[in-house]
User: Which sequence fits this backbone?
């Protein structure tokens, strides 16, 4: 479908290649043990996962700062599960989480296979809203950094996906026109609609099992990319 059109493929990182939820759960398990936080991990994650996604949406919309996101997602989760945790502990856990997160290296099934398949015929890049100081470490630790040429993050661009500026910066750095570019990501709002609005072709990797839509092609496994390229 895109084989004769596309020369450059832009991937999102978290929830698309790097298995954020799995690595995040392992991180919390470690830092809770280290800091003697006595809470069942499953109970904590049941509240934290949707809370974190909600705060990332606020962050994309410039309604909270990076520091507010890091603090509030934990504060709200502990408050919701009625666990008394001091502000000092919240800040300690927040820092420990960021330091520890990139030490885990799980990627989605098929990540290496699809990157190996694509790199012979396409230039591969990353566009991420993740924090600059951890995204590079994530890619190095999970052994995928070498696949990518251009890596653009929201702190570098000064805006977050779906803002057109971050996509245009990535296109400029890769020296490719939008009609020859393809974006693959998990977020319908940030990745798919954001890229589509600047004329980039899109494929939605539905890692959150969201409702089906007609906006673009949807895949449930990275291997399905081969049917389009």
Assistant:
């Amino acid at each position: 479908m895109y084989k004769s059109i596309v020369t450059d493929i832009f991937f999102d990182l978290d929830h698309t290649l790097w298995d954020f939820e799995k690595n995040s759960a392992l991180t919390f398990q470690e830092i809770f043990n280290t800091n003697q936080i006595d809470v069942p991990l499953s109970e904590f994650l049941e509240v934290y996962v949707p809370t974190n996604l909600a705060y990332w949406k606020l962050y994309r919309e410039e309604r909270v700062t990076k520091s507010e996101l890091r603090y509030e997602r934990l504060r709200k989760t502990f408050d919701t599960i009625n666990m008394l945790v001091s502000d000092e502990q919240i800040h300690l856990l927040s820092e420990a989480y960021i330091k520890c997160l990139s030490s885990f290296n799980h990627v989605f099934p098929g990540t290496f296979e699809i990157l190996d398949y694509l790199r012979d015929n396409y230039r591969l890049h990353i566009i991420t809203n993740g924090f600059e100081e951890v995204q590079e470490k994530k890619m190095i630790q999970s052994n995928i950094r070498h696949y990518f040429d251009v890596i653009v993050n929201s702190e570098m661009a000064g805006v977050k996906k779906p803002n057109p500026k971050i996509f245009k910066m990535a296109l400029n750095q890769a020296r490719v026109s939008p009609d020859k570019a393809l974006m693959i990501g998990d977020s319908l709002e940030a990745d798919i609609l954001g890229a589509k609005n600047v004329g980039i072709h899109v494929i939605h990797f539905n890692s959150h099992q969201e409702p089906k839509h007609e906006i673009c092609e949807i895949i449930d496994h990275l291997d399905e990319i081969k049917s389009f390229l």
